[in-house]
Structures are given as structure tokens and as C-alpha cells.
Amino acid sequence: MTYDPASANPLGSNALATRSDMQRALIDLFNPLLPYFSEGNARVRLDAAAAHFDRAAADLEGFARPLWGLAPFGAGGGHFAHWDRYAEGIANGTEPNHPEYWGTVNGRDQRMVELAALGFALALVPEKLWDPLSPRAKDNLVAYLIHARQFDYADNNWKFFRIFVDIALDRLGIEYDRSLTRQYLTELEGFYIADGWYRDGNVRRIDHYIPFAMHFYGLIYSRFVDDDYVKRYRERALAFAQDFRYWFAEDGATLPFGRSLTYRFACAGFWSALAFADLEALPWGEIKSLCLRHLRWWADKPMTHRDGVLSIGYGYPNLLMSENYNSAGSPYWAFKAFLPLAVGEDHPFWATPETPLAPLDETVALRHPGMVMMPCKGDVVALSSGQENRQMRFGSEKYAKFAYSTRYGFSVESDERGFAGGAFDSMLAFSDDGIHYRVRESNDEVRLAGNVLFSRWSPWPDVVVETWLLPSSPWHVRVHRITTPRVLETAEGGFAIARRDFEADALFSAPGSAYAVGEEDFTGIRDLGSTVTREGLAQKAPPNTNLIAAKTLVPQLRATVPAGETILRCAVIAVRDTSAVSGEWLRPPAAPGIDELRILARQGDSVSAMDAPGRMS
């Protein structure tokens, strides 16, 4: 029998419907790590690939990140057979003379990130990790934590990491300088926008770090601490839930958007943290459904290696889409999803039957992330104003495409000199030499008018593009006004769908349109009367570029635009319905006139994510 990579997924045979199912899932996901613990149990090394930080920090990451799930499991009465390994690992990792010493923190350091997991676990289950330590080991651990917390943490969600160490020190009865805790609590307030939305630092972007970091940590804080911040963290989570639920489709898939997607089902961490904090931000049946449906979505994905260890990647192992801070242990931030294991069977999260959310049946505009959430036959498409991340690899693909989909994800490019073969799904690419290319990386102006998004951006300093995005489910319409002093080649892509072997898919291309019909999906793009003729192309995208499907097809429109002003108009569709080729495909929406669109742009509101950092919206 041919090996099926999905068969190595430890979630594959799990119904993921009950508390005991989730307990089993945690242990099944953890057990593949056991062969990779070091002799002294302080390090977990999973492969030879590197992150930008040193190997000892990567080994600590492999050791510490599972604690985000193991500690709630232990607190909720679950039987974990390897607490002795963790206690021994902590003792050896903080002993400077031991060969498995984690290394001393002497500045901003990846160890600071992982010590947050350790602080959380020490606060939640001290009887498992603190009480078994010898007096010398306790002294070493305290010295290690207090030494690390004196350094400056990154100006983003990292500030919570020192706070989590401080919570542990408090609960263990250790004296320390609390002014540093108060300083970071104050500074974190500067990241708050409004209506439950934060930035992850002084940056022009909003992504999954808001739910699985900023809110996740705030809700845990609210369980451990009683102060003025607790009330605001809980109130903000209540507001955020009303918007964040729209990032999830009927089948549990969430919107792949932004960085660190290799953390996978950490995306359910917000719903998990509501249970931990006992905060009914939505009816408990809906919170439970959002959490467990998301876990179930992952159960048939080939997301692990043959031994069941989580891979770097999203739908499948894929280093191409990773960040330079992703080591082999990084994906185990996914264990944040297991936070509900800390609450008992009688908690309403577990005692209430799942209640699926009513399907999204109309567009919903979200001003703060600059998105218009659009229902698409069970899936969700987010039209996006475009955000900014020029610091990280594939920041444009992760933040600045025109649309993102729960079903079709998005693609990263694999060759910066491959204009002819690029995927360019949900992007407009320009080339001045037919080899290199530019896409939207940031915006000079962004507006949201009702459910219409407008942005003005420049692929080069002397080229200006004005883009309008309009929902018309299951289609969306794009209009671009391009002003350029020279001739440019352009390529505009629709959504990427899975491609089959043996050329089994139906591809179509003609002047002004292109589509592909796959095993389950239809994807197409139609010109709606541009001022230049555009040729259709059913592009066979480079392999391993899409986050969900390893091989994909992308319909494109390609054209040469002259110097001066050019208007490009198109409609884009992708649905899990192959019959759409003789249905919806034949009924494209119309594009409004440019004058009407320019009036709309002037009337729109600013998008918080792209406001100058520090400005309250």
C-alpha cells in the first residue's frame, strides 16, 4: 500500500468532540517527542534545520512549548507520565555547570519567549515542576528567571513574557522588583486600538497574534491576578469575540493570514482561553464549537513528519513559508489550544453541547484589520486593504494580498526572478524587464467605505496604483487605476486551487478570462472591461508555494500597460463546486465606474491597522 502522509497525523482517528478526546489528542501529539529528549531531559532537538537563534535556545523551545498544553492537562487532573522528565530538565537546564545548560540570557533572547511557558506552568502546576526540585535546583531556577527578566524584551507581545515569569515568582513566594512588571503592563496598553483590537507592537499590521497572543495572555493573566487590568482584558475579549468569529468557516478552518502560521491550531487559542478565564464572550456552545471544529479541521492534514512530530509548515511540511525564527520546536505553540483541559468536565465549556455558529450570510466589514469578510458557500473570503510587514520573508504575501480564503489560503512566491511562472494569487504583479517583479508591499492610503476597500500604493516610487475591492459573493470585483511613466508588464491572479496528477484538471484560457476546474473546486478570473486587452492564463503554480495544497492552479490575466493611465477591472471567484463552470461563472458582476469609486474612496473611514502606530482609532 502506498504511504499516505496524513496517516501520521496523531489527530486522524480522534473524534475531538469531548474533554477526554482533547486529553487524548494532547498526549498523542506529545508522545512523538519522547525519543528526542536529551539524556538529561533539558533539551528537545527535532531536526537539523536552524532558526536565527542558537541551538540551545531552539532545544529549549522544543522542551518548553508543549507546557502550554501539558500544564492545563495536569491542572485539570490528567495523568501525564513524564513530569519527572520536565522537573529534571528544568534542574539541568538552569544549572550553569551542566552540559545541557540552556545558556545565559545576556540581552534580547529567544529564551525569554520560552521562559513564559515555564512561568505559566510553574504558576499553574507548581506541584509538578517546583515541589520536586532540590533546594539547589530551586535556587538555580529562581536565579535564572530573575537574571533573564532584567533585560529589555521586544516591543510587542513579548512584554507579556516577563509578566508571566513574574506571576510565577509571585505564586512561588519569591521577592523581585515589581516595578518592571508595572512598566510592561503600562506599555502594553499602548498597543490597544479599540473594540477589542490590538496591534502586536508599534507596527502597521494586525494578525493572529492578537487572538493567540495579546488576548490569550491577557485572559490567562485575568485568572491569576486581581487588579485593574483584569477588568479591561476581559471587556476587550468580549468585544473581540464578536469580530473574530467571522475569521472561521463552517468546517472549522480559520483565515490563514499573517506570520507564524506554522503554529497551526494555536489559532483556536482565543476560544480556549475564554474557557480557562471562565468568560462567556459568546454562548458556551458556540465557543466550544469554534474551538473543537478548528481542531477537527486539522485532523486529516499531512501536517506531521512520519514519526508524528509536527512539521514546520501549514497544511503540509513546508520550510518555504516559514519565518527565520521558526525552529523545529516552534510549531508546538499549537498546544495553546489545549487550555480548556484545565477546567473540569462540569464547566459549561464542556457541559454545553456544541452549537455551530449561524453561517455568515452577508458581508461584514472589520475596520480595524481592514477586512471585508465575505461568505462563499460555506467558506469565508476576506477582502483585505493590505497591511505592512517589510521585515519578514514573504511579508507581502502574508499581509498585502487583495484577498485571503479559509479554503484556498494563500501562496508565497518561490523565485524573485520568476515573473513568467509566478503564482500571484490574489495579487497584481508588475515587471519592467519580464524577469523581476513588484507587488503591493504597503499602502500610502487606505479607506473603508461601507463594504468597499480602497488603497493607494506604489510598486516603484514613480508608479501609483489605486485599488478598489468590492464584495459580490461568491465573486469579488477589483478595479485598479495605474499611473506609470513607462511601459510595464502585469499579471493578476485569482485564487489557487489544488492541482491533480495526470493533468486531470480542466484548464481554460482566452482573451479576458481564465479558469480551472479541479477535483472539487472551481476558480476563475474575468476581465470586466479594462482599457487594455488582457490574456487569460491558467497558471500551474510552482510546487509548495500554497499553504494548504502542495500543487495548485491559479487563473491569471496578463497584459502590457502603456505609459500614462490604465484602468484594470476584473471579477474573481473560487468555490467548492465544479458545476460553477456552467453556473456562477456565466453570471459575473459588473464593475462600477471609476468616478463613482473615487467618490466612495473620499467618503471612507481610515483603517486602524494602517494608521500611524500609536494613534488611537
UniProtKB/TrEMBL annotation:
Protein name: DUF2264 domain-containing protein
PANTHER family documented for this protein: LINALOOL DEHYDRATASE_ISOMERASE DOMAIN-CONTAINING PROTEIN
Domain DUF2264 residue range list: 18-356, 362-585
